[in-house]
Each structure stands twice: as C-alpha cells, then as structure tokens.
UniProtKB/TrEMBL annotation:
Residues 14-146 form the HTH marR-type domain. PANTHER family: HTH-TYPE TRANSCRIPTIONAL REGULATOR MHQR, TRANSCRIPTIONAL REGULATOR, MARR FAMILY. PROSITE patterns: HTH_MARR_1, HTH_MARR_2. It comes from the Bacteria. InterPro entries: HTH_MarR-typ (IPR000835), MarR/SlyA-like (IPR039422), Tscrpt_reg_MarR-type_CS (IPR023187), WH-like_DNA-bd_sf (IPR036388), WH_DNA-bd_sf (IPR036390). This is MarR family transcriptional regulator. Keywords: DNA-binding, Transcription, Transcription regulation. The lineage of its organism: Bacteria, Bacillati, Bacillota, Bacilli, Bacillales.
Length: 156
C-alpha cells in the first residue's frame, strides 16, 4: 500500500467508526467495571446476579448464552456467588440433568442496594450526550449490530 492509499484508508468512515466505537466501548466498560468492583463483585458476578435478579431462576446451562460465558467459567462464578451466599443452586424436579441458579434474599438485598447507585453512575458517565442524542445512538448502534449479525451469518 502506498502513502496515498494509506491516507485514503485512514479517512475511511467505516474504519474510523470502528475505532471510535471500540475505544468508546472500552472506556465505558472500564467505568462500569470500576463501579462494580466497589461492591466487591467482578463484572461477571454482577452480570449473573443482575440476570437472576431481573429474570428469576435460570438453568445453569443457559446462563452462558445470556451473559457470554463458557461452562467452566459459569461453574467458577456460581461457586463464588454461592460461597458469598448471593445465589443458590436448585436441582430440577423434572430433569436430574438440569440445575438452576437462583438469587438468594441476601443477593436480592445487595442488588436492591447497589443497582440504583450503579444506574446513577452510568447516567453520570453517559452524560456526554443529550437525551435525543442517546436515543439516536441507540437506534444507530442497534442497526449496526443487526447488520453485523447478518454479515456474520453470511460468512459462515
């Protein structure tokens, strides 16, 4: 690639958008993670508790799909949260192969306490956009995500 082609590609809006979105995602993720650790939870533990808090008990086998974890990682996270008394395992009464994870009362109380604070923190670091800009960004990023998913399917 010669210098002219390099300069042209450097100005390409697709590449520039990819870099900007990647950097913004990393910065926002870092801020959210920093906030979560204040409560003694890592991001995966927080995500799992939040899932159980909002959706109720979940089969361990399905949790990985919902919060993007491998089965080995799920076991580790579930063990940690169980040791902290924040969730419990419940065997299925219908199928011995299925075990559910359910948030405990202690876990529910913890999220009742920290989730409003975490939400406020997210609102603070998302304050760089107006409400209208946030709504526009949501629509545009969803559209981009759907397009990327379609592209991924085509590439298979």
């Amino acid at each position: 690639m010669n210098e002219s082609e390099y300069q042209k590609r450097k100005q390409d809006p697709s590449l520039k958008l990819f870099v900007v979105l990647s950097k913004a995602s990393r910065a926002l993720g870092d801020l959210a993670q920093l906030d979560m650790t204040r409560y003694g939870l890592n991001p995966t533990e927080f995500a799992l508790l939040e899932l159980l808090y909002h959706r109720g008990k979940q089969p361990l086998q399905k949790i990985g799909e919902r919060i993007l974890l491998t089965s080995g990682s799920i076991t580790y996270v579930v063990n940690n949260l169980e040791e902290k008394g924040l969730l419990k395992r419940i065997p299925s009464s219908n199928d011995r192969r299925v075990t559910y994870a359910e948030i405990t009362e202690k876990g529910r109380e913890l999220l009742n306490d920290i989730f409003p604070k975490h939400w406020e923190e997210i609102e603070r670091f998302m304050d760089g956009l107006t409400e209208d800009e946030k709504l526009q960004a949501i629509d545009l990023v969803k559209k981009l995500g759907r397009s990327a998913e379609e592209y991924k399917i085509e590439k298979r």
